[in-house]
Amino acid sequence: MATVRITEQAWSDLDAILDCYDQSAPGFSEVFEEEVVEKIRRLEEFPRMGRMVPEIGDEALRELIHRSYRIVYYVDADDDKVEVLTIFHSSQQFGGIDDEE
Questions:
Q1: CA dihedral 1, 30, 32, 86 (to 10 degrees)
Q2: Which of 13, 59, 86, 99 makes a 20 to 30 Å CA pair with 74?
C-alpha cells in the first residue's frame, strides 16, 4: 500500500476551486471536495491508476481526471510513495509549457 501525500500547492489549488464553487454553486463545493479526496485515497491501493501526463511523457508523473479537472501526481519507482502535486482545470496544460521556446 502506497503512502499518499498532498502538497501545499495541491491543497491551495483545491481551495481555490472550492471557493469558485462556493460562489457559483453553493453546497456543491463539499460534494466536489469529497469526490476529489476519495479519488486521491484510491491511489493508496492503485498508485498507477492514472494515465501519464501527456505533455511530459514520464511514467512517474501521472494524472487522474475528475469532472473537468486534472489531479497531477508523482509516484516513485517502487509504487510506495505518491505525492499529489497540483489540481487544475483540464483546459490548461501542465506546467505552463510554452512551445515557442
A1: -60
A2: 99
Per-residue pLDDT tens digits for 50-61: 999 999 999 999
Beta bridge partners of 72: 63, 86
Report d(CA 75, CA 81) in Å as an integer: 6
Residue 43, classified by CB atoms within 10 Å of its CB into exposed (0-12), middle (13-18) or buried (19+), is buried
3-state secondary structure of 27: coil
Q: Please count the other Cβ atoms lying within 10 Å of the Cβ belonging to residue 45.
A: 9
What's the CATH superfamily of 3-89?
RelE-like (3.30.2310.20)
